[in-house]
Each structure stands twice: as C-alpha cells, then as structure tokens.
Model the fold of this input.
Amino acid sequence: MAEKSRGVFATLFFWAWSLFNFVRRLVFGVIAVILLLGFLIALRAGGGGGPALQERTALVLNPQGSIVEQYSSDPMQRAFAGVFGQRIKEVQLRDIVKAIDAAAADKRIERLVIEPDEMSSAGMSTLHEIGAAIDRFKAAGKDVVAVSNSMSQGQYLIAAHANQILLHPDGDLLLEGLGRYRTYYKDALDWLGVDVHLFRVGEYKSYAEPYIRNDASPESKEADLFWMNGVWNDYLKEIGAARKIDPAAISAQIENYSSAIKAVNGDLAKLALDGKLIDKLATRDEAEAYLIQKGVKEENSYRKIDFQDYAALVQRENPIDTRPQVGVVVAQGEISDGDQPAGSVGGESTAKLVRQARENKNIKAVVLRVNSPGGSAFASELIRREVELTKAAGKPVIVSMGDVAASGGYWISMNGDQIFAEPTTITGSIGIFGLFMNFPKTLAKINVHTDGVGTTPLAGALDPRRALDPKVGDIIQSIIDKGYQNFITKVAAARKKKPEEIDAIARGRVWSGTQAKERGLVDQLGGLREAAAAAAQAAKLGDNYQVRYVEKSMSTWERFVVSLSNDATAHIAQGLVPESMRTLLAQPDVQSQLKLLRSLDSNKVGVFAYCFCEIK
Done:
C-alpha cells in the first residue's frame, strides 16, 4: 500500500514538474520577446534610422545564397535573423535590381563593388537581369569593380559586366558549358519486378523516361541539345559583349582547355587572365588596397554600404508613392493545389492574388511573373482562368517569364496579352504524361500474392499490388490524349493559331526564350522591367506609374517586427547592440517561440504537369 502511495505521489510530482517547466519556458520566451520589442522600439525612437549615407560611398553587391523571385523563408525568421546580424540565405532579384538602379541615380554612390563568391544558385535569366542593371549603372558614368577568390560560370556572368575584374592569384575560373544528365532505372526496376506503365502524348515529353529506359531517347537528346545550345550561345554572347571578346574565341578556348591549361602549368587564374576574362590578379588585401585607392579610406577599409542595407535606406528615404500602380503577381516554384505560402505557387492562393490585383482600383495593369517548371494541371487551370477574367475585366495582363516557365508554367502564361521572356528562359514543354507503377512480380519474389473480387472491372484496377489490365491502360491513355488536346487547344486559342500549328511545336518539346519567340510561343524578348513598361503602356499610363508586388499579407505582428528590424540591423552593424542581447536572441527557447508565432498550412497532393528541364 505504501509503495502504491509513493507511485501516485511520484506521478503527481512528475506532472506538476512538467507543467511548471512548460510554464517556465513559455514565460521566459514571452519575456524575451517583450524585451526584444522594447529594445527595438528604443532603437527606433533614439537611433534616427542609422547614420546618414556619405559622399563617395561604394555599393557592395554580395548576394549570399540563392537569388529568388520571392522569399520562401518565413518573414519572421528573416526579421529576427536581421536583428542579431545574421542573413537568411535567400536574396530577392527585385531587391538587387532596385538597389543598383537607385544607386545609379544617387550622387552619394561612387561605384559598385561586386563580390559574387557567396552566391550559390541563380538561373541564367536571373543573372541576365542583374547584368542589365549593372550596365545601366555603368551607363550613368559610374565605375564597377568585381573582386573574387574563385568563380563559377554563373557567378562570372555577373562579374563580367564590371569595368575591372580582380581574381585571387590562387583562385580559379572555369567555364564548363551546360549539361543535363539523369539517372536511369529500367534494369533496376526490372530486377525488382516492378512494372512501369507510361502514358504520354509527345515524343519529347521525356520526364518519365528514366523509369522505362536505361538511357536518354534520341528525341530527348535532340531536343535538349537544341535548347541548351541556344542558352549557351546567349551566355557566350553576353560575356563576349561585356568583355569585348569574340564569343567564338571563348568557345575555342573551352574546346582546347586540355592544352591551354597545360601551357600555364595548371594555373587557372593565369589562364583566365591570358584569355582576357579578368583584368588583374590580386589577393584579397591587394584588392582592398586597390579599392581604398580608388575611393575613400574609412577605418581599415574603403567607404561602403551593403546593398541590402542600402535598399532599406532608400525605402526609408523615399516618400509614399501615390502614382497609379502596375501590380506584379509572382508565380515561383512548383505549382501545387490549394493555398500555399508566399514563395510558392498554389492554385487557390496564386489565383486569389491575381483576383486581388484585378479588384484593386489602384492597380491599372498586371504583370504575372512566372518562374515555374509546372506542377498540378488543375491548379494551373485555376490561375489561367483568373488571368483570362482579368483581361475580360479590362485590365491588361503581361506575362514576364523568368528562368523557367514550362509545362504548367506555360499553361498559366498562355493567356497574357503579351508574353515576355529572356533569351535564356526555358519554356514550352507543352505535353501531357501519366505514370503508373505496380509490383505484383516484386511481391511474388518473396512469396506474397494478391487476390480478391470487385463489383466492376475498374474496382481495384489501380491497386499497385495487381497487374494492370490493358483495358484500364487504354482508359488512361484516352484521358491523357484528351488532356493534351485540351492543352494545345487552349494554347492555340490564346496565341491565335490553329491546334495543329501548336501541336507541331509542342509534343513536350522544350525551347529557349529566343527559340520560343521564333515559334510564336513568346511575343517579346525582355525582362521584368520591359514587361512592366509594356503593362503601363497598355494601360495608357505612360511613364507615370509605380510597380507594386501583390503578395500574401503579413500579419500585424509580422509587419511590426519587420518594420522595426530594418532600423535595428543598421545599429547592430555598428556594434551598438550589447552582446548580452545578441546572446538572448540566439537562445533556442526564444527561437522556438518565434517559430510558433506563424502557423503553416498543410500541402495537398495533386496531379502534376511538370518539366524536368534544369541545367547544371
């Protein structure tokens, strides 16, 4: 009896302690957040928004992580990371371009310094738009210097637009070209006893080939090499024009890398210098001294400002813009059904943004910015329909294709009044496929079998444990055929062509932006800037307009923290934040509390129309 009493007492003590510990953690988390808010408010009240920008300052473009159309990270994470001196490894393309364009007209900014080494990924079209902004900066009579320890060919595409490129003597720059190699599973699946059934229309719709072949089909190789050569030639033209080198000479050097590298004893930095891809070899301290000499010495470096800090400064300095608006709706990433968070494409959520832009009286025209390889066909149709309704309501809709707008990405684009694409955009892939796998032979290998009855031939027909009835296969193929006809018919109506004309350039084939324009799938070559200007012209706004992004609204809490964090970040950069506050903010308990402040929606699974068309 005594042991039982002790057991009950121990249980009660355990639950009491657990409750106390939970309350303790919650209270300390809330106190930390309250202290943080008080600290931020004090900064805003007493800091005056940071020091004034001085004359002869250099703008430093040093993107860290991926360059994206729209953040996929949580706004709370970004805000609080900025508060204690950290960076989320994502940078929005719009912020880079906006900072460079603002600096071009800012008399306080003397030059642009490009440090591309920490940029991890960006598509060719994204890099082209940054390069165009750098060219506008140079056209304003300002200097651009690129400094690097080592560059990939993507990083070099930005650096190539500089007036001078400085590379570390022990660094490297190697232009490789473009490649697309996949893993094929047919023999492995056969060995496992898995039966793969592919249903498709279009011999170029190669997404599912790895499951039915051990190598790429001739059609896949033909189509891939065609569009990749188009993109690569545009790459060579761009760096050739920027560096004043014949693209053929660059191509010839790449073809003869083996002998060329031997001639310089394996020194890739010297090879880049001899090939005029760079201007000077310099260690980091030598590059720093060079920039001090060209600019103004400040402490132990040159006078400079980070491009993200500069973008926040410009936003604070500019008054509220009351001009008519061109609304930009971003469709970035795979297209999924339902409501998806910012930074991704949801059938319901993205369609809602287009609808909001249509119903907003201040927005006179809409730009749909697409950077998507596709996804759910149903979700794509929901978005396409909202584009169609927006046009019917009298608002122009201009489509701006980014790095990729293929398959479902083209589906949502097709009804634009005009479609803009960069020469290096990957688009097309107009095709339909279905893939079904079953594994009765796999189960039989371990002496497992499936049997039973159904009231109709369709009952249990798609059970992966059972062999696929050929009649059911015929049904699926008929559905796929109908889906393809639906796709090309909609494209034909949108592009004012006959379905058979679209079929000739569809069948799942991928095109570069230039190739798509030649075939009537794209109207104009250009980026977001040109698309916005076309939207303003279609709405008869002339030059009197502003660009406004139509995005999911942040909560009151998120807006409050984000607005305060910009000011706080400037003070942290100056060392004005006590180490104790930084330590407090970095505590796991505080971070976990912050993550709970924003709920996440669950994803839904749907049927996808996808283009496997990335390049490396």
In short: The chain has a mean pLDDT of 85. The longest helix spans residues 2-47. Residues 69 and 94 are 7 Å apart (CA to CA). The two ends are 72 Å apart (CA to CA).
